[in-house]
Predict the structure.
Amino acid sequence: MEAGKTREGKVIQGYVCSNNNGLEIRVSEYGAILLGVKAPDRKGRIEEITLGFPSIEDYFRRHPYFGATVGRFCNRIGGAAFTLNGKEYRLAENDGRNHLHGGIEGFDRRLWKSSIREDSDAITIHLQYMSPDGEEGYPGSLEVHCLYTLNENNEIIIDYEAVTDAATHLNLTNHAYWNLSGNPEKEILDHELLISADYYLETDPELIPTGKILPVAASPRDFRGKRKIMDGSSDKPPLDMSGKPGYDHCFVIRREAYGSLVRAAEVEDPGSGRTMQVDTTQPAIQLYTGNSLDGSEDCNGYERHSALCLETQHYPDTPNHDDFPSTLLTPDEKFRQKTIYRLGIRG
């Protein structure tokens, strides 16, 4: 279906896909955005469980990356620069002096090409974008693919693939904002969360990694056992590294082998019974609790802590840390990453 048109008048294709269990996803060519997810609760009520806007035109404004495919490099790059093969590459400064989520006109603001494939037990939406050499300061022409698959196991599978004609850095994620209660006016601090991580990345007040990887033990960042998101020692969440109440932390996923598909997180809303499991091949997951949502028009009226993000990704600022798992992609490689969001109901 036609979802709308760009400011230049180009048609934006949109897709609505559902399975036999009442799970529905909506996807747009613009920004390869997951526009929304509807899911039943324990009483069979089907409700929207992600944040977003009512029309595609609303996504043209600067917004908190609702449901977007984020790249070339999600999260932050300190000083908006990195050095590769002896050459410094300057990137857009769109987060103070730093580079955030691919820059001013990142993948979330590009029109992708799309196609759809229907199988007996799954539907896949295939989106493709050609990022030219020098876009937002990155080297190399990059061909990137994003595939959304909805199947009868209530899995939303997101596959990323990419090839480049010159060495470049690549870090992709989906930036969906989840509220499993189905009511965005209800804070997600009572959601119960488990993160399969023994360590997290220390950051400075600008949320740039210091290079230290710290244990979660004996800290508010310990989600190794499922618990409410709010700090277990008080009725308020801790402060993130920038001083805002809530979480904006990158956790190192516990795994035996890099690149294997492992459980990264589990989240549950006790009130509705909705659950979500997150499996990924990525090395890290960013927990963000909507700390900067402020009720403004650009946020569609959503307030702080009205949703949480579980962004599977590589570490922030990896191009400037040789000891982090590499985000370098060269012409002789093919980039592949997979994340599965598995929805369920607990009676």
Notes: The two ends are 36 Å apart (CA to CA).
